[in-house]
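Saturday, quiet lab. Running sequence design on the structure tokens for the scaffold JK sent over.
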């Protein structure tokens, strides 16, 4: 019947929107995680560089 088809179509639209949301969320998490790892790497390099320059000169 018409109401059953309409209900099925509404469910398809909702599940498609939910899948799109999950896909966007997953992509966002991957990008954020990549940014965090990149910042950690940059900070680690900066700390290591400071440790080299902050040591007393070797005679």
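Result came back. Writing it out in full:
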């Amino acid at each position: 019947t018409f109401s059953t088809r309409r209900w099925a179509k509404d469910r398809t639209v909702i599940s498609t929107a939910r899948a799109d949301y999950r896909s966007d969320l997953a992509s966002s998490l991957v990008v954020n995680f990549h940014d965090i790892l990149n910042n950690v790497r940059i900070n680690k390099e900066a700390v290591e560089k400071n440790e080299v320059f902050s040591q007393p000169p070797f005679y």
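Notes for JK: Helices lie at 2-54. The chain has a mean pLDDT of 75. Ask whether to fix the surface positions before the next round.
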